[in-house]
Amino acid sequence: xxxxxxxxxxIINMYDGCRLGIIGESExxxxxxxxxxxxxxxxxxxxxxxVFSEEKYLIIPWQAVKKxxxxxxIVDLENDLQPQRASM
Length: 88
Known about the structure:
With 88 residues, the protein is mainly β. Helix content is 0%, strand content 36%. It has no helices and 7 strands. The strands form 2 sheets. Strands 2-1-7-6 form a 4-stranded mixed beta sheet, with no helix packed on it. It has a 3-stranded antiparallel beta sheet with strand order 3-4-5, with no helix packed on it. The protein is globular and about 35 Å long. The two termini are 25 Å apart. InterPro entries: PRC-brl_dom, PRC_barrel-like_sf, Spore_YlmC/YmxH. This is Sporulation protein, YlmC/YmxH family.
């Protein structure tokens, strides 16, 4: 699969059915040697108050990706997963 084919796909958590974000609004971390995707980093989808707070990111390891469909990417993340700060 080409990286461009991921563009615009919505990321859905199969654990709770939550929409996590869209590829294109997120960053992909690639292995510099193999070119494989290591993780997806999605910016926090907070409300108006998030403008004044420290920006946080949800880091999704590529191993959590269960299925890449024509319109969505299904991931399996546990309920207690919290947004994490990413050093970017």
